Structures are given as structure tokens and as C-alpha cells.
Amino acid sequence: MTDFKTPSRRQFLVTGAAAAGAVTILPYAARAAAHGGDTFETGAGLITIHPVHHASFVAETPIGVIYVDPVDGADSYATFAKPDLVLITHEHGDHYNQETLDGIVGETTQIIANPAVFDMLPDAMKAQASAVQNGGTATFNDLTINAIPAYNTTEERKNFHPQGRDNGYVLNFDGFGMYVSGDTEDTPEMRALTNIDLAFVCMNLPFTMDANAAASAVAEFKPTYVYPYHYRGRDGGTQDPESFAKRVGMDSEVRRGGWYKEGELSCPAVTNRLKSKAPRTRRLFHVR
């Protein structure tokens, strides 16, 4: 087990009361407003999710600011506070970019990555990082983080994400479980997850799985809320989050995120739906 304790633990306080129809404001929220976000009211405190792009997002949590798979340059994160923790699932360029890390990692930032990415980090950054393999556990500011195997099961896709190399993560806040799939298919380990309140589930071809497989897995492990993400594919492999939402069932509420810019996706149906969406607003969700 890896145990991280940052020198100065950020405490997130509500600066605006949550009332019917009101917006909950968190520290740094004004600077992050351009990204939109959903706030989840949990037993652990308020958790706000800000999609950044494709597989990258920022989570403002009671134990600190967490960046997940930050890429696309430091400027993409200029409106956010420096991360207390960075999670990296694997080495592919849409999940790990050293130049971005160089621009966002502060003196007290801690990094948790799979062993392959840890080995790629500069020596100076390794001092702030820990390698966690499939099935391993790390702690950060009393938050337990489990590394969930992420891999391809379809024979012709196994070269993308071989079993044993890449991670997903479960973040175990007090009474609130958050799962980040990374790049994976609907593995037995994903389907066996329990007590997940918020999930981020990938779906794109040929690299991970299609919307049907992703929805089938979600219907089995039944998170309270789920974000379909990482759905831009190649050669017609972009997946439709609306199709995913129709197949998930009634046990999970599907949340949308502003993961892509208009015109960025190759699937006309998805692009047209994005055009028709109203601008994202911040919403408060109660998780019991």
C-alpha cells in the first residue's frame, strides 16, 4: 500500500447555500465555470466534476483537487486550482502527456499511476509519484484508492490494452464510491464492482468497447450516476452516448459532460446531438 500525506490539506467549504433551485458554489468554482460541472452532495461532502476533454476531468473533492488523466497542455487547466492528486490510468497519449504534467504539477502534488507510466516519469517527478499495479491500493489524505484492472478482452483488440498493464481506479470517499474505467472492455472486474455511486465508463472502437457492452456492464454493477466518456473512436468507431443512455436501464442516471468541441466527433449523429444541446449549467445532485 502506498500512503500519501500532503503538507497542507485543503478543506473545501461551501460558500453558497444549497436551496431549491439554487446553485452550490465551491471554492475555485468561479474560475472553473467555463467548463461547466455537476456537484454531488455526498456524505463525504460536496464533489464537483468538471469534464475537460475526452478522458480528462477535474474533481473538486473534500480531500483536495484531483486531476484524472490530464493531457492537452497546461493551458487547458489554467482556470482550475493546482492538483493535490493526479491519477494516470495508462501511457497512451490521450491519458498521459509529460509536457502537460510539467505545467500542472505543483510542489505538493502527488501522482498515482500504473507502473508503466511511473517508469516513464522524470526522476524528479518520481519522487512525488507512486506506481500502483492491478489489484493494488494507495491512500491519499485518508482516501483509499483501488487499482482496477483495465484491459481488452476481444482478441483483435488485445494489443491496445493488454491484461495486467493498465489501471482503472475506485476512489473510496466516506460513503461514496467513484469509479474511473480508464481504457477497458466490460471485464469481469468491472461487472463485479459494488457500491459505486459515480462512474466514468469509456466506449469507443476499435480501442475499448461499444455502447452496448458499456451499457450492459453498467446495468450489472449499477452505479447511482454514470458519465459515458472517452467515446470518440476511429474509422467510424465513435459511440453515441444517447444510445448508451437508452440501454443502461433504470438503476443508474446517465450524466452528460462537455467532453468534445463542436465538430470534433466523426459520428454525424453524435455531432448533431451536441449542436442541439443547451449550454451546460451547474447542477446539484443528492447521493444517499
* Quaternary: single chain
Which CATH class is shown?
A: Alpha Beta
Count of the domains: 1
Number of helices: 8
- Stated plainly, the CATH topology is called Metallo-beta-lactamase, Chain A
Largest sheet: 8 strands, mixed
The arrangement of helices and strands along the chain is: EHEEEEEHEHHEEEEEHEHEHEHE
Strand content: 25-35%
Give the CATH H-level superfamily.
Ribonuclease Z/Hydroxyacylglutathione hydrolase-like
Residue-averaged pLDDT: 82
The CATH architecture comes to: 4-Layer Sandwich
Q: Could you say which overall geometry the principal axes of the C-alpha atoms support?
A: globular
Give structural attributes:
single chain; 288 residues; alpha/beta; Metallo-beta-lactamase, Chain A; 8-stranded mixed sheet; 16 strands; 28% strand
How would you summarize this macromolecular structure in one to three sentences?
18% of the residues lie in helices and 28% in strands. By secondary structure, it is α/β, with parallel strands linked by helices.
Task: Give an overview in words.
This protein has 288 residues and is of the alpha/beta class. It has a single domain, classed as Ribonuclease Z/Hydroxyacylglutathione hydrolase-like (Metallo-beta-lactamase, Chain A). It is 18% helix and 28% strand. The protein has an eight-stranded mixed sheet with strand order 1-9-10-11-12-13-14-15, with helices on one face. The longest helix has 11 residues, at 211-221. It is globular.
